[in-house]
Design brief:
With 375 residues, this protein is of the alpha+beta class. The chain has two domains: 194 residues, 3-Layer(aba) Sandwich (Aminopeptidase); 140 residues, Gcn5-related N-acetyltransferase (GNAT) (Aminopeptidase). Helices cover 33% and strands 26% of the residues. Strands 2-5-6-7-14-8-13-12-11-10-9 form an eleven-stranded mixed β-sheet. β10 and β11 form a beta hairpin. The chain starts with 6 loop residues before the first strand and ends in a 7-residue tail after the last helix. The model has no long low-confidence stretch (mean pLDDT 96).
Length: 375
């Protein structure tokens, strides 16, 4: 890069302010959640909008008006849909009569998937720390957060803090069948898994696999019904509306997989996945009736089989869930980075992050001891 060429950083409040060709040129990732069409569907469907507390505020860096970096960002008035929890921080601010929101968050809304949130070959995330801090001071934004990103290997500034969580991922070690995979389990765990899977046909359950272009409106309507039920059971409102799913399935059909389970020809449950050339991403599960072991079959075992059949390297089934360990999903650290403007909270939050990191490392090691694989 020519040092005489000054980098200009600006923030735009709509995906429409970014040329799709520029986005795709800067995006070198195969991850479907970093595709322009995914973010466009979030905004056009109003699933990520000011009204929902997700005001688009995307970072755009340029040299001589030529975009060299993009980072999807949002001004948030709450902490829902992020999965790196800072509710305690917000409560502490509230207790002292200090506003915690708005905050600026770089993430994929409602999607706790690790990826390089900065789309650029010329810049790295740490290059943007100072411009982000300056922007927060100028715009009365109280913090910035970069969630589920690649780990930063260089030393962090004193007031930028790393947080870790643990997710459970499956890795394809050149398996040629599900049985080949199961042969890596201890005999007791292998018998248990086979017994668990056998209960599905014993209950008369059939599963059909639909890729994006094969999903009918009736299939989508059933999926969305179960998606809503999953949230309503927890007294929450769904984050995404059906317009979002319709647009994504239409524009990203090569990246969508829907599994639907039926009981005597009546659809009873489904699981929605996304995938690219290397990974499968489990996203949403729902059912109209509870059937023994069906969640494990649809969300995990069928996903593993899909990876093996399609030579995908890994499977990220979603956040949390220790029940995944005994099914061969390994504990993986995720990374996020945080800056808080108010000086009175910096030491406390830094201490919290350090203690949390230590706890997560211990937790990860403890989880590894519970994996079903032969030693």
């Amino acid at each position: 890069m020519n040092p005489d060429n000054k980098i200009t950083v600006e923030f735009v409040n709509s995906i429409d302010a970014i040329n799709p060709d520029d986005w795709q040129k800067l995006n070198r990732s195969a991850c479907p959640f970093l595709h322009y069409n995914f973010f466009n569907a979030l905004e056009k469907s109003q699933s990520a909008s000011i009204e929902k507390g997700w005001k688009p505020h995307h970072l755009k860096a340029s040299i001589n008006d030529e975009p060299i970096a993009l980072m999807p960002m949002y001004l948030k008035s709450h902490s829902w849909g992020e999965y790196v929890f800072d509710w305690d921080w917000a409560e502490a601010f509230k207790h002292h009569g200090i506003p915690y929101y708005p905050k600026l968050v770089a993430t994929i809304p409602f999607t706790p998937v690790s990826s390089n949130k900065l789309l650029s070959e010329q810049l790295n995330i740490s290059t943007l720390f100072d411009p982000l801090i300056t922007h927060c001071h100028q715009q009365e934004i109280n913090s910035w957060h970069i969630l589920y990103c690649e780990p930063i290997k260089t030393p962090l500034p004193q007031d930028v803090y790393e947080r870790n969580t643990v997710q459970f991922h499956w890795f394809n070690r050149d398996y040629n069948s599900f049985d080949h995979y199961l042969n890596t389990f201890t005999s007791r765990k292998r018998r248990s898994t086979r017994k668990e899977r056998l209960t599905i046909p014993q209950q008369g359950i059939e599963v059909r696999e639909l890729k994006g272009h094969e999903i009918s409106q009736q299939d989508l309507d059933f999926f969305y019904l179960t998606y809503q039920l999953t949230y309503l059971k927890r007294d929450h409102q769904p984050h995404l509306n059906i317009d979002f799913f319709q647009q994504v399935i239409k524009e990203m059909s090569d990246n969508v997989l829907l599994l639907i389970a039926s009981d005597e020809k009546q659809d009873v449950a489904c699981a929605l996945f996304f995938y690219d050339d290397e990974q499968l991403y489990g996203r949403y599960w729902g059912c109209t009736e509870e059937i023994k072991n069906l969640h494990f079959e649809l969300c995990y075992y069928r996903g593993i089989e899909f990876c093996i059949e399609n030579n995908l390297k890994s499977f990220t089934p979603g956040t949390q869930g220790e029940h995944k360990i005994q099914r061969g999903f390994e504990p993986i650290l995720t990374y996020s980075y945080h800056w808080i403007k108010h000086p009175g909270f910096k030491d406390a939050i830094k201490d919290f992050c350090q203690r949390e990191q230590e706890h997560m490392l211990i937790y990860q090691q403890d989880c590894k001891q519970l994996l079903p694989f032969k030693q």
